[in-house]
Amino acid sequence: MGYSVKGKGKFVARKRRHQRVRKSVNGTSQRPRLVVTRSNRHMVAQVVNDEIGHTLVSASSMEAEFDGSSTKVEAARRVGELIAERAKEAGITAVVFDRGGNKYHGRVAAVAEGAREGGLEL
Predict the structure, then answer these.
(1) What is the pLDDT at residue 2?
(2) Cα–Cα dist 74/95, whole Å
């Protein structure tokens, strides 16, 4: 599946990276996949079991406790801490990290650091 849309360089590059990452990153019941979705404004993290195709837990910067007073990187770190907290409540201690084709930098890295601080093993 090739992506070649004129004028969509960043979009195409991210899609290509995502396909490359997903070839090797797969979530199981023992070690589900921590999926990070990044938009211009928000971060969403989900823990997914790919064997059955279910989202086990999720956290987002769109939730009520995020009032918009923090920076986007601080909010991303808090999303990582929240997902770790909820995953531990669900009995999940280890995950594989799926950066979704985004570069491991900035807000994506902040989610991973927050999850590690919260006690998840990445």
Answers:
(1) 62
(2) 22
